[in-house]
Amino acid sequence: MDIEAFVNYCKEQGLSVEINELEMGFREKSHISIFDLPNGIRIDLSGAYTPWDESVVEDAEEFEYENTIIRIAKPEYLIANKLYKGGELDFEDALSVYVQNRDRIDQKLLQDLAKQLEVEASLETFLRKITELRNENGR
Asked: 122 Cβ partners below 8 Å, 6+ apart?
């Protein structure tokens, strides 16, 4: 599917995305955000440009939607990547991903990914924050 056809398909589905944003995202090898504004959902797309990206795609969860295989990064990869990026908003995003997926987080995988990205100390800080939040909320 070419970019124009993809954008047209997204717009038919009520999603907000522009051709120039997609082209720029692919050219800059960054992520592209597509928005479902009425439902407040943001979908981030990214190409696989590095060995890390390829491992995320290889280990992604798959599901089929309208005869198309969709691959979604496992939450452990999202969290590890957010910790690697290291910004305040990235930390908050990682917390959100963790909380939303807390019952299915593979702690060993998360530890292994943190080691691979050399963010073990950030993960320790992150997990302490999770524990603090649980204690505050009585969980």
From this structure: 83, 84, 86, 114
- The burial class, CB within 10 Å (0-12 / 13-18 / 19+), for 98 is buried
Per-residue pLDDT reduced to its tens digit, 8-58: 888 888 888 888 888 888 888 888 888 888 888 888 888 888 898 899 989
Residue type at 111 in one-letter notation: Q
Q: Which residues contact 139 (CB under 8 A, 6 or more apart)?
A: none
Amino acid letter, 110: L
Residue 135: Cβ within 10 Å count: 9
Tokens, residue 1? 């599917």
Q: What values do phi and psi take at 70, rounded to 5?
A: -110, 130
